[in-house]
Design goal:
- Strands 3-4-5 form a 3-stranded antiparallel β-sheet, covered by helices on one side. The protein has a 3-stranded antiparallel β-sheet with strand order 6-8-7.
- It has about 240 residues and is of the alpha+beta class.
- The chain has 2 domains: about 120 residues, no CATH class; about 100 residues, Orthogonal Bundle (Arc Repressor Mutant, subunit A), CATH 1.10.10.10.
- The chain is built from 8 helices and 8 strands, in the order ααααββαβββαβααββ.
Length: about 240
Protein backbone atom coordinates (compact mmCIF):
# COMPACT_ATOMS: atom_id res chain seq x y z
CA UNK A 1 0.00 0.00 0.00
CA UNK A 2 1.33 3.43 -0.90
CA UNK A 3 1.88 5.85 1.95
CA UNK A 4 -0.38 8.86 2.05
CA UNK A 5 1.28 11.91 0.56
CA UNK A 6 1.93 14.58 3.23
CA UNK A 7 0.27 17.94 2.92
CA UNK A 8 2.79 20.38 1.40
CA UNK A 9 1.23 23.75 2.26
CA UNK A 10 2.25 25.38 -1.02
CA UNK A 11 0.64 22.66 -3.12
CA UNK A 12 -2.40 21.59 -1.13
CA UNK A 13 -3.64 24.72 0.62
CA UNK A 14 -7.31 23.74 0.60
CA UNK A 15 -8.79 27.24 0.59
CA UNK A 16 -6.48 28.24 -2.27
CA UNK A 17 -7.12 25.16 -4.39
CA UNK A 18 -10.88 25.49 -3.80
CA UNK A 19 -10.74 29.06 -5.07
CA UNK A 20 -8.70 27.91 -8.07
CA UNK A 21 -11.30 25.24 -8.87
CA UNK A 22 -14.05 27.86 -8.94
CA UNK A 23 -11.92 30.24 -11.02
CA UNK A 24 -10.61 27.78 -13.59
CA UNK A 25 -13.03 24.91 -13.79
CA UNK A 26 -16.25 26.10 -15.52
CA UNK A 27 -14.51 27.61 -18.54
CA UNK A 28 -11.54 25.28 -18.41
CA UNK A 29 -13.73 22.19 -18.67
CA UNK A 30 -15.47 23.57 -21.73
CA UNK A 31 -12.16 24.46 -23.39
CA UNK A 32 -10.81 20.97 -22.65
CA UNK A 33 -13.89 19.32 -24.18
CA UNK A 34 -13.57 21.57 -27.22
CA UNK A 35 -9.93 20.55 -27.54
CA UNK A 36 -10.77 16.83 -27.32
CA UNK A 37 -13.92 16.72 -29.43
CA UNK A 38 -13.16 19.09 -32.29
CA UNK A 39 -10.63 18.86 -35.06
CA UNK A 40 -9.90 22.54 -35.60
CA UNK A 41 -7.67 22.86 -32.52
CA UNK A 42 -9.04 26.35 -31.78
CA UNK A 43 -9.30 26.95 -28.05
CA UNK A 44 -8.24 29.35 -25.31
CA UNK A 45 -4.62 28.38 -24.60
CA UNK A 46 -4.33 30.25 -21.26
CA UNK A 47 -7.53 28.71 -19.88
CA UNK A 48 -6.53 25.27 -21.14
CA UNK A 49 -3.09 25.58 -19.53
CA UNK A 50 -4.58 26.65 -16.18
CA UNK A 51 -6.96 23.71 -16.40
CA UNK A 52 -4.07 21.32 -17.10
CA UNK A 53 -2.27 22.50 -13.95
CA UNK A 54 -5.47 22.08 -11.93
CA UNK A 55 -5.95 18.55 -13.29
CA UNK A 56 -2.43 17.62 -12.22
CA UNK A 57 -2.94 18.99 -8.72
CA UNK A 58 -6.19 17.11 -8.27
CA UNK A 59 -5.28 13.88 -10.00
CA UNK A 60 -1.57 13.18 -9.50
CA UNK A 61 -1.55 12.60 -5.75
CA UNK A 62 -3.02 10.31 -3.13
CA UNK A 63 -3.45 13.23 -0.74
CA UNK A 64 -6.87 13.14 0.93
CA UNK A 65 -8.41 16.54 1.55
CA UNK A 66 -9.77 17.22 5.03
CA UNK A 67 -12.80 19.03 3.58
CA UNK A 68 -15.42 16.36 2.73
CA UNK A 69 -16.85 18.57 -0.03
CA UNK A 70 -13.44 19.05 -1.61
CA UNK A 71 -12.59 15.35 -1.32
CA UNK A 72 -15.93 14.37 -2.90
CA UNK A 73 -15.27 16.84 -5.69
CA UNK A 74 -11.77 15.45 -6.24
CA UNK A 75 -13.08 11.87 -6.49
CA UNK A 76 -15.82 12.81 -8.95
CA UNK A 77 -13.35 14.91 -10.95
CA UNK A 78 -10.88 12.01 -11.24
CA UNK A 79 -13.64 9.69 -12.46
CA UNK A 80 -14.64 12.24 -15.06
CA UNK A 81 -11.04 12.96 -16.03
CA UNK A 82 -10.31 9.26 -16.51
CA UNK A 83 -12.99 9.17 -19.18
CA UNK A 84 -11.83 12.39 -20.82
CA UNK A 85 -8.18 11.34 -21.02
CA UNK A 86 -8.63 7.69 -22.00
CA UNK A 87 -6.36 7.30 -25.01
CA UNK A 88 -8.12 4.20 -26.33
CA UNK A 89 -9.46 5.01 -29.77
CA UNK A 90 -7.37 8.18 -30.17
CA UNK A 91 -4.75 8.68 -32.82
CA UNK A 92 -2.15 11.43 -32.75
CA UNK A 93 -2.39 13.96 -35.54
CA UNK A 94 -0.19 17.06 -35.43
CA UNK A 95 -0.73 18.89 -32.11
CA UNK A 96 -4.15 17.59 -31.15
CA UNK A 97 -6.17 14.36 -31.11
CA UNK A 98 -8.95 13.10 -33.31
CA UNK A 99 -11.37 10.63 -31.78
CA UNK A 100 -12.67 7.67 -33.74
CA UNK A 101 -16.42 8.09 -34.03
CA UNK A 102 -17.16 4.84 -32.19
CA UNK A 103 -15.10 5.76 -29.16
CA UNK A 104 -16.42 9.32 -29.31
CA UNK A 105 -19.97 8.03 -28.85
CA UNK A 106 -18.86 5.82 -25.94
CA UNK A 107 -17.13 8.74 -24.24
CA UNK A 108 -20.23 10.90 -24.63
CA UNK A 109 -22.34 8.20 -22.98
CA UNK A 110 -19.88 7.92 -20.10
CA UNK A 111 -19.88 11.69 -19.66
CA UNK A 112 -23.68 11.81 -19.60
CA UNK A 113 -23.63 9.39 -16.65
CA UNK A 114 -20.82 11.13 -14.78
CA UNK A 115 -21.65 14.79 -15.25
CA UNK A 116 -24.61 14.84 -12.79
CA UNK A 117 -22.37 13.35 -10.07
CA UNK A 118 -19.61 15.80 -10.91
CA UNK A 119 -21.97 18.81 -10.98
CA UNK A 120 -23.43 17.91 -7.58
CA UNK A 121 -19.94 17.64 -6.08
CA UNK A 122 -19.06 21.01 -7.58
CA UNK A 123 -22.26 22.61 -6.23
CA UNK A 124 -21.54 21.21 -2.76
CA UNK A 125 -18.01 22.65 -2.93
CA UNK A 126 -19.34 26.09 -3.94
CA UNK A 127 -21.85 25.98 -1.06
CA UNK A 128 -19.21 24.99 1.48
CA UNK A 129 -16.86 27.75 0.31
CA UNK A 130 -19.56 30.37 0.69
CA UNK A 131 -20.06 29.24 4.28
CA UNK A 132 -16.34 29.17 5.06
CA UNK A 133 -14.91 32.23 6.88
CA UNK A 134 -11.52 31.50 5.29
CA UNK A 135 -12.82 32.19 1.78
CA UNK A 136 -15.43 34.88 2.41
CA UNK A 137 -14.69 38.44 1.35
CA UNK A 138 -14.91 41.50 3.58
CA UNK A 139 -16.75 44.33 1.83
CA UNK A 140 -15.07 46.92 4.05
CA UNK A 141 -11.72 46.10 2.43
CA UNK A 142 -13.00 46.65 -1.11
CA UNK A 143 -13.46 49.59 -3.45
CA UNK A 144 -17.23 49.63 -4.11
CA UNK A 145 -18.72 51.54 -7.04
CA UNK A 146 -22.17 51.60 -8.63
CA UNK A 147 -22.50 51.78 -12.43
CA UNK A 148 -25.97 53.01 -13.38
CA UNK A 149 -25.65 52.39 -17.14
CA UNK A 150 -24.69 48.74 -16.52
CA UNK A 151 -27.05 48.24 -13.55
CA UNK A 152 -24.10 46.77 -11.69
CA UNK A 153 -22.14 47.16 -8.46
CA UNK A 154 -18.38 46.70 -8.71
CA UNK A 155 -16.52 45.30 -5.71
CA UNK A 156 -12.92 45.72 -6.78
CA UNK A 157 -12.62 43.44 -9.84
CA UNK A 158 -15.80 41.52 -8.95
CA UNK A 159 -19.20 42.55 -10.26
CA UNK A 160 -22.74 42.08 -8.99
CA UNK A 161 -25.28 42.48 -11.79
CA UNK A 162 -28.74 43.83 -10.99
CA UNK A 163 -32.00 43.43 -12.95
CA UNK A 164 -31.95 46.61 -15.08
CA UNK A 165 -34.70 49.18 -14.52
CA UNK A 166 -36.15 47.21 -11.63
CA UNK A 167 -36.48 48.06 -7.92
CA UNK A 168 -33.01 46.72 -7.01
CA UNK A 169 -31.43 48.89 -9.71
CA UNK A 170 -33.31 52.04 -8.62
CA UNK A 171 -32.61 51.35 -4.95
CA UNK A 172 -28.86 51.22 -5.60
CA UNK A 173 -28.98 54.26 -7.88
CA UNK A 174 -30.58 56.30 -5.09
CA UNK A 175 -28.55 54.90 -2.19
CA UNK A 176 -25.21 55.41 -3.96
CA UNK A 177 -26.14 59.06 -4.48
CA UNK A 178 -26.27 59.39 -0.68
CA UNK A 179 -23.40 59.24 1.85
CA UNK A 180 -22.51 55.84 3.30
CA UNK A 181 -23.32 55.07 6.96
CA UNK A 182 -26.18 57.57 6.98
CA UNK A 183 -29.68 56.21 7.80
CA UNK A 184 -32.26 57.44 5.30
CA UNK A 185 -36.00 57.35 5.91
CA UNK A 186 -37.75 54.69 3.89
CA UNK A 187 -40.10 57.24 2.32
CA UNK A 188 -37.19 59.11 0.74
CA UNK A 189 -35.83 55.86 -0.64
CA UNK A 190 -39.27 54.90 -1.94
CA UNK A 191 -39.57 58.26 -3.64
CA UNK A 192 -36.16 57.69 -5.20
CA UNK A 193 -37.25 54.27 -6.48
CA UNK A 194 -40.73 55.09 -7.75
CA UNK A 195 -40.62 58.85 -8.29
CA UNK A 196 -43.95 59.22 -6.48
CA UNK A 197 -45.05 60.30 -2.99
CA UNK A 198 -45.38 57.16 -0.84
CA UNK A 199 -47.48 58.83 1.88
CA UNK A 200 -50.79 58.68 0.03
CA UNK A 201 -52.78 56.21 2.12
CA UNK A 202 -52.11 53.75 4.89
CA UNK A 203 -52.57 50.80 2.55
CA UNK A 204 -50.26 52.28 -0.07
CA UNK A 205 -47.69 53.11 2.61
CA UNK A 206 -47.56 49.52 3.88
CA UNK A 207 -47.23 48.18 0.35
CA UNK A 208 -44.44 50.60 -0.55
CA UNK A 209 -42.59 49.85 2.69
CA UNK A 210 -42.65 46.19 1.76
CA UNK A 211 -41.41 47.02 -1.76
CA UNK A 212 -38.41 48.93 -0.41
CA UNK A 213 -37.64 46.30 2.23
CA UNK A 214 -37.82 43.49 -0.34
CA UNK A 215 -35.44 45.38 -2.64
CA UNK A 216 -32.96 45.85 0.24
CA UNK A 217 -33.00 42.15 1.10
CA UNK A 218 -32.81 41.14 -2.57
CA UNK A 219 -29.68 43.23 -3.19
CA UNK A 220 -28.04 41.90 -0.01
CA UNK A 221 -28.75 38.32 -1.08
CA UNK A 222 -27.40 38.99 -4.57
CA UNK A 223 -24.17 40.42 -3.10
CA UNK A 224 -23.80 37.40 -0.78
CA UNK A 225 -24.10 35.05 -3.75
CA UNK A 226 -22.08 36.94 -6.38
CA UNK A 227 -19.29 38.36 -4.21
CA UNK A 228 -19.08 35.54 -1.64
CA UNK A 229 -19.47 37.78 1.41
CA UNK A 230 -21.64 37.37 4.49
CA UNK A 231 -21.77 41.13 5.05
CA UNK A 232 -24.83 43.19 4.11
CA UNK A 233 -24.46 46.11 1.73
CA UNK A 234 -27.64 47.71 3.12
CA UNK A 235 -29.28 47.65 6.55
CA UNK A 236 -33.04 48.02 7.08
CA UNK A 237 -33.71 49.20 10.64
CA UNK A 238 -36.60 51.13 12.20
CA UNK A 239 -37.96 52.16 8.79
CA UNK A 240 -34.61 53.48 7.58
CA UNK A 241 -32.07 52.19 5.09
CA UNK A 242 -28.33 52.60 5.52
CA UNK A 243 -25.64 51.89 2.94
CA UNK A 244 -22.97 50.26 5.06
CA UNK A 245 -20.01 50.73 2.69
Amino acid sequence: MNARVPNPSAYFDEAEISTEILRVLPRGMMEFLKYRFTQDGVYDRKTADDFTVLRERLGNSEYRFTSPELQAFKESFIRLDDVLTDDFGYEARREHFVIHQTRKDEVKQDLQKLFPVFEKAHADLVRSMRNSPATQISLSAMSIKFNDSEAAIYFGDKVCKLPPFKNEHYLCKFMFSQPAAQPIDWSEVSRGITGTDPLVSRMATKKLQRTVKDAVYAVNHRVHEDINSSEDLFTWKELTITRNF
